[in-house]
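During the reporting period the student researcher (J.K.) took over the structure-prediction task from the postdoctoral fellow and processed the backlog of single-chain submissions. One of the processed entries is reproduced below for the supervisory committee.
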Amino acid sequence: MCIRDRLRGWFQGIEEMTVPAVSQVLEQLGRLLTMYTLGIVLLPRGIEYAAAGATFGAVVGAFIGVVYTVVAYFRRAKIWGTNSGEPAEPWGSVAKEIIMTAVPISLASAVFGITEIIDLGLVPGRLQSTGLPPEEATRLFGQLTGGAFPLLNIPTIFTGALQMALVPSISGAAKLSDRESIVRRIRKALAITVALALPAAMGIYVLAEPIPALLFKDWGIGKVLRPLAPGVFFLALQQVTAGILHGLGRMKVPLVNLIWAALTKAVLTYVLVGNPSIGVVGASIATSVHFGVAALLNFLAIKREIGDVLDGPAMLKISLSSAIMSVIVGVTYGRMQTLIGWRLATIAGIGLGVVVYGILVVATGAVTVEDLQSFPVLGRLFKQRNRK
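J.K. obtained the following structure tokens:
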């Protein structure tokens, strides 16, 4: 895994994102196939053998991933050569730069883990302090962490990849002191982030009850999910703005901002959850505020460093498109649930929302053909269409 991650980082550093992406897909496919196959084959020998075989899938997946990245690396090394003609940097300076880069990022990941500990340490106890029995407090906490939080993280599948791509892109422009290129890339990154996260947040807010009911068969999750909807948007912004700051060489800034945000979350969680009229919903509010504070502090740091980086017209178009989409989704769900049932109405609302939003952002110019061509599959379709 160390070799695999090192090579993936190397490809990301040269802005070659295809190899890391393919290796991750192959790794997950290998892991799932191995887990499924060994689980079935070994199950007759006992549940412990089946569990061991399923666990071994992680080893097989990692092996497939590292083999692919190693082969891809040597293919490119053969084409480019391994000697650039420039003198190698001293080992000490390289090691120092790696440490100064890696430690703040690693600590930032640790802060995210600490926020989970905050929830675990405060929420059940504060719920019980309001008079709830331990069983009810545990049930509500399970709705929060087992149902609402996983839905909170869905948009980060895309924004996490964008964050990784931003670091080498912006750092390369920063090395060349190309301010115009830096501003252009930051504006594009923020616009893409808002275009992905804002409609997701609004959609989750509108369908906060039926979505978890469809996935987890629990209507009660909607109560704690709806206050988390703003957190969906803020978490995506926090991720991408942290990537921008890392690309600008400001490694410590996102870490410090996360610490301040975590302290804010701890105070709000203690106060709000302990209020009987708010209860577990207070934990959702505190989480949204937590990511909002971190994103705001990151954005202010970027503004101090670079200046104005927001594309106002694009943001307005995306916001209007998202608002119209959310209204249509809400009306569609409300009208259709009595005709086809709430399950199909939920699926229809989500599908219609995606189509309507896509049409709106293209029609208003919030997303251009150039933006669509930057996506791998859509890019190929547009190129084939242009050839015709």
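The committee noted the following: Residues 2-78 form one domain.
J.K. will present the remaining backlog at the next meeting.
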